[in-house]
Amino acid sequence: MGSRDELIQCSIPFLREVKDMTPGAEMERWLNQKYGEGSQLYQDLARLIKLGVAEGWAANQEVDGPNYRRSRILEPMPETFQFSITAVYMNSTDPRRFKDEDDHDVLRGQYHGHPYGELNLVVPLDKGAELKGLQGWQGPGWTAPDPGSRHYPEVRGGAVIALFYLPAGRISYDFAAPS
Fold first, then answer.
1. Nearest alpha carbon to residue 63 among 93, 87, 98
2. What are phi and psi of 154, to 5 degrees?
3. Which domain of life is it from (predicted)?
4. For the segment 19-45, what is each residue's pLDDT rounded down to a tens digit?
């Protein structure tokens, strides 16, 4: 079995467990307590998605240059309880970065919405790298944006891979960004 198939097979028991839960702050806390950085699930998924990026099957399509890439790993299907699996690579050392209120270099991605929410595994590649979730900055661990939420993905502190699971595969880029 290749690493892509291994990642999918590793995801299925997790998706079976969370299939009827609603993403949001409460679920995010639960995910970080039960499946945080020290858990076997986090370690396995992080190892496999890093391998996927290195092997070129994950986060291999440039969205806006080599420091902002993504790819759909798997479309929704019955075996994954209608969740899709996607990976994004973002690196805040990109020349298009900006300074945030704390003087950190931040790379901002495409504004988008989550009709049914999202479960997002955050895998920093650089020590101290973080992804901005709806509850604040997150290093190794999880974010779980609520159904109906909208945001810019942002990273600071270096490179991050986000492995995310979308209920029904739903994500929308059709919203106007706030001015």
1. 87
2. -135, 140
3. Bacteria
4. 999 999 999 999 999 999 999 999 999
Q: What is the pLDDT of residue 81?
A: 98
* C-beta separation of 120 from 112 below 8 A: no
Residue pair 39/31 in contact by the 8 Å Cβ criterion: no
Residue 154, classed as helix, strand or coil, is strand
Q: What tokens does 23 get? A: 């993403």
Q: Name the phi and psi angles at 30, rounded to 5.
A: -60, -45
The position carrying tokens 């492995």 is 163
CA 9 to CA 1: how far, in whole Å?
Answer: 10
Backbone φ and ψ for 140, nearest 5 degrees, come out as: -55, 125
Reduced to 3 states (helix: H, G, I; strand: E, B; else coil), residue 86 is strand
Residue entry with tokens 């099957």: 57
Place of tokens 């479309």: 75
How far, CA to CA in Å, does 148 sit from each of 24, 39, 116, 134? 10, 29, 6, 12
For residue 99, give every residue at least 6 positions away whose Cβ sits within 8 Å of its Cβ, in sequence order, or none.
Answer: 105, 106
